[in-house]
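Input.
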Amino acid sequence: MRANLPALVFCLAAATTPVYADEISDVLAGIDNRYGETETLARALWEWAEVGYQETRSTELMQQALADEGFEIQAGIAGIPTAFVAEAGKGGPVIGILAEMDALPGINQSDLPHRDPVDGKGAGQACGHNLFGAGSVEAAIAVKQWLDENDVDGTIRLYGTPAEEGGSGKVYMVREGVFDEVDFVLHWHPSSENWAGARGSLANRSAKFRFSGISAHAAGNPDRARSALDGVEAMNMMANMMREHIPDSARMHYVITEGGHAPNVVPDFAEVFYYLRHPDTETLLELWPRLEATARGAAEGTGTTVEWEVIHGNNPLLVVETLAKMMDQKLRQVGGVQYNAEEQAWAEDIYATFDNPSRELGSETEIREYDTGVGFGSTDVGDVSQVVPTVGLRTATWVPGTPGHSWQAVAASGTSIGVKGTQVAAKTLALAAIELYQNPKLRETATAEWQAARGESFEYVPLLGDRVPPLDYRN
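Output.
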């Protein structure tokens, strides 16, 4: 009789092998039991806060955690010393999980809920990549254990991906074919909410524009000088005029990274770092020469010279709704984040520091409604999604209302609040991977949707060209 059968968790599509509820319970319990390992790994990456392409200790610790669980490690891939692949299992399907690790320069904070910079520390995990790395490692370990214990054919790969923040580490990995033999890729990101909708991203290209002039005494011999800073400022003025005449959906921003050292010395070198974004890659490529033209015009008008170096470029995320809906279901199965009394008090203290918070305290327990659209951020995950069907989610690792790249995000990323959100992500990723292993109809449907979205004439083109990884871009 049906009532006498063991409880089953049925997959999304027909003609699939069901997964027994006790197997899922074991996977979730296993991740809970490894809370200490997750916390230790996340805290180490938070303390070190290593910036892009310099994540030496972080990558070694992540690799060691995976090697201890029986993964085979291939380190230093795609010409990047801190990039790696850890693999376990046998046969197919092959599922990859992305793991970021880099910190952001120029911001740091202790784990206290009030502004408390750490003296001498030049970077912080303001985007929560310490949690990203730790959660993905734990998800991969959980999937490996499930494959082993149930003798299921399939390979799990953990991709250690450096320098997401402006370094496009994954793009070099894609360009070198690191993802060529992968069937699906899963990822996640720390956030102030729990959400697994189908949202794309903006294509992005950046460059450092370097102006050279002639230095002289700014008071005694100004006529003999040609200011490189004038070149930068003239370019910025023209670029800001250009804003009126580009699509509303475009984004352009810059920072002057070198402008001189003393007011009485006309600078013979100055540098400005630009980002240009748009949802459509072709439109971005049409806008980019116009930005280059402002640099040439600025140099001509100020009697300086200019050259530029493309630093990074990301294609937009290619959304696969079939996979996004599956991930949304798995997130709802896992549920949101529950604070204890101490965490609640900490959250209330830091919540009081927000100006116009975007979400109410307490929503960390909720799962945001599934939706679609395009976000205004950019990520090198987009390039992965161009060559492999890819899906992700966000979990509430930060107090609701926390803006990314803020000191509040750094603080939460170093606490148990961050780790609890990380556990939610690890569980959701593990369940999504198991669904893909067990559900051939889902794999077929998602792959067909992805191929249709790319189009028959698709050809992958990296927006950063053929340049080598800029391993020193954070120096």
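The chain is about 40% helix and 20% strand.
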